[in-house]
Amino acid sequence: MPPRIVKKVPRERKMTIVEYPEKITFPVLQKPDKDLSPFFEGTENGMDFVCGSCNHVLIKNVRIVSLPILAVYLCPQCEQLNTL
C-alpha cells in the first residue's frame, strides 16, 4: 500500500491588530484581573490564534467556524485590540 499523503495544516494564526476607535460599536472581549489564560479553549483539531503584536495565545485549539467573527479581543499581555 502506498504511503498516505497528509497535508499539514497550520496550527497557529496571527490575529490582526485594530486601532482603538473613538466610539466602540462592536463587542470587546477582555479578561478580568490580567488573567493570561485563553479566551476559548477547544479539545482537538483546532488552531491557536495569537496576538498580532506579542504572540500571546488568545484562543487555543479552536476551529475558526466556532468563533464570533465580529468580536474584538483585548490582549491581556500587551493590551492591543485583536480581531480575526
Characterization of this structure:
The chain has 84 residues and is mainly beta. It has one domain (12-83). The protein is 0% helix and 31% strand. It has no helices and eight strands. The strands form two sheets. A four-stranded mixed beta sheet has the order 1-5-6-4, with no helix packed on it. A four-stranded mixed beta sheet has the order 2-8-7-3, with no helix packed on it. Strand 7 and strand 8 (81-83) form a beta hairpin. The model has no long low-confidence stretch (mean pLDDT 87).
Counted by DSSP, the helix tally is: 0
Mean pLDDT: 87
Q: Main sheet, how many strands, which sense, barrel?
A: 4 strands, mixed
Query: What's the β-strand tally?
Result: 8
Terminal Cα span:
41 Å
One letter per element, helices H and strands E, the order comes to EEEEEEEE
Structural class per helix/strand content? mainly beta
Which outline best applies?
Answer: elongated
- If you compute it from the alpha carbons, what radius of gyration comes out, rounded to the nearest whole angstrom? 15 Å
Unreliable parts:
none
| Major beta sheet, strand line-up | 1-5-6-4
How large a portion of the residues is in β-strands, by DSSP E?
Answer: 25-35%
Care to give the gist of this entry?
0% of the residues lie in helices and 31% in strands. The chain is mainly β and 84 residues long.
